[in-house]
Structures are given as C-alpha cells and as structure tokens.
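Recall that a protein's primary structure is simply its ordered list of amino acids. Everything else, from secondary elements to tertiary packing, is in principle encoded there. The following example makes that idea concrete.
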Amino acid sequence: SVLFAREHPERARALILYGSWARRVAGPGYPWGLQPAELDALLDQMGAAWATGEWWAGPPVSLDDDRHRRWWARYLRMSASPSMARDLLRMNAGIDNRDVLPALRLPVLVLHRAADTWVDIGHARFLAANLPCVRYVELPDTDHRLWLGDTAKILDEVQRFLLGPALRSRRRVTAARIVRSRAAAS
C-alpha cells in the first residue's frame, strides 16, 4: 500500500496503516523487526496455527477463547495453505520501505496498539517519525487482530481521520481537477 500510494498518488487520497512496519526483519538502523532466526521459528510454527487457531506470537488474549480460536483456524485455512502463508510472510519479510516513506505526499494515519504482542510498537513509531503528513495514534490493548479488544477506538480514529480537514481539503483539490479535466474535454 505504501508503494502504491507513492507510485499512483492520483489514485490514493489517504493511507491507513494498522499494526504495520517499514521493514519486518531487524537490520541496521531498524532494531524492531524479527531476527532471522525468530522469523524462521515463527514460520516453522504456522502449521499448528492453521490446525488449532493457537497463534504462535505472544500470549493469547482474554477474547481469544475456544470459539474464537476455532473460527480463527478456519479463517486461516480458507485464506491460504500453511506453506502459501509461509512463502508470503517470507517474501514480505524481504520488503524494506524505509526509503519510500519520506516521498509520500498524502495524509497517513498510523494506528498501533501499544502492547501489540505480534508487532513491536517501535515499528509504528518509526513510521510516524518518517512520514511527512502523518497522524499517529497509539491505542491501548495487546492483540494485533483489530477485531479483538477495543474496536470502537479504532473505528473512531479511522472516522476522525477520513472526515478530518486534511483529507477534506485534498478531496476538494481532486474534485477541482476532475471538473477542470471534464471542462477541457468538452
């Protein structure tokens, strides 16, 4: 989504990043990612998650009961096979968007749960520090899955961002361009 927004600014009015990162694996100047051995261990444990819904990163949360774990396991199985998911996560782990961030010229909302057990808060803080037009919100809670925990707070922040003045003014500029281009085509 970050690359798309940079490459196609005329098609992206805003960007919302939740529980995101600029780089998934730790590296020079970026200590928050997984170490290569941690990534390998996480990938090795994915089959169990697909079978049982028991996630491999961090402790279960109170809302992650047996019913939810069964639903989660079904969701994972219907989304991809464990080997497909491993390949996708390994590919995503090779992405490094740090150099793209300063070039984004659209409003960006970065939302992250402060005690997220899957993705360290340092990732979100890095994004916020390196994006030129950012609204950064740390949310209380631990689970990475946005449908667990205080979902109302997430929705409130998204609504505030999408209806806020920065995006409204950008929509006016886009609408003015559309009107001008239609008038020129007539």
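The longest helix spans residues 165-185. DSSP finds eight helices and three strands in the chain.
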